[in-house]
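Changelog-adjacent note: as of this version, every example in the card shows the full chain rather than a window. The one below runs 417 residues end to end.
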Amino acid sequence: IFFLYNFLISLIIPFALVRHMLKSSSFGEKKLRAFEKVGFFQGEKSSNKSIWIHAVSVGEVNVALKLIQDLEEILESPNFILSTTTLTGAKKAKENLSKNLKHVYFPFDLKFICKKFISFYNPSILLLVETEIWPNLINVSSEFKLPVVLVNGRLSDKSLKKYQRLSSYFKGSFNKIDHAFVQSKNDYERFFEAGINKDAMSVSGSIKFDINLEPVKNFNETEVNYYKEKYLFVCGSTHPGEEEILIDSFIDLKKENKHLVLAPRHPERFDEIKKIVNEKNLSNILYTEVSSNPNIKSDVTIVDVIGRLLDFYQIADCVFIGGTLVDHGGQNFLEPAIFNKPIISGRSTYNFDEISKKLSDLGLLKFVSNKDEISSIVENIEAISDSQREETNLWLNENRGASEFISKKVCKEFNLI
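Full-length structure tokens:
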């Protein structure tokens, strides 16, 4: 298994590098930075100890940034390395760079590349956000006596079964994790079954409750006027196979002044979605065209930028959470919940299982399975009541504090102070 794993990683590297470079320009990224993934780093070798945090994409970067904020309040002049896998994650990270924070791309999980990375950047601790289990990296970190800590850890039943099928390979990696701060008791039990020792885990809750989700950009006056008279059905972080169902349900919707907002999870799909909308004979506009075309009538807005989803959630009449009509486990339910919006979702919610169940209990979330159920629920859904709003806000407040708890314990247990 070890040989096969390394062989497959080696095969993937050339294709992943080319794909990264081809997509770089659309994110304002330098193409050559892709080679950081194979151990070609810019600048001089680091002599200062730093805290290395790895976050795959935008959601995990938001968690990492909150953790960095709390660590900066505890530590004196800390240095941070924030690594990401995706270009969208990199864009988010680079928007928040400071003199103490450097962004790099995460190395491919081959032993010699991981060794080069650790030798070059000289981290004193590695914090992996959510479920980033990379066997070679964890093994190399152990050789370097570099503590590995999992933060905001979550593990679904589906993922656990995958790891258990290869337990002879992955169990050793889980066992080498120095500490895991996990989101729930269920995650605690699953990580224990995967191989992390119980005395090396803490149930800390989710840092996603701590993130400030207030929109920071907001709409300009032209955009506000464009959307203010419309009934907005906002579909966030959608995946392939979902847009067709959502569009068909929207066509059946009898709401007056209805308007569909489609915000795909992956920005490279903008053109693909525009083609689907055109095939359904719906007039549409790209979000970036609204300000210069305020009088164009449209049925659909395609959100062709990243970082504006919260703004749409704030003005939405109803929100759909993507990655739930397909078997992806769902995206962040807390984002529309913070604005007390009615939410609908498919039934694949294993990434946010407990949160989605709680939102359902609070009456904010309705589960759907097909286009007819979507159009029926959206047609009849009511605005959130004052009592629901109060109960939801109380629940959100009660669950805050994970980031502060983790930051203090990491500093204490691993002598960072």
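Structural remarks: The CA atoms of residues 110 and 136 lie 6 Å apart.
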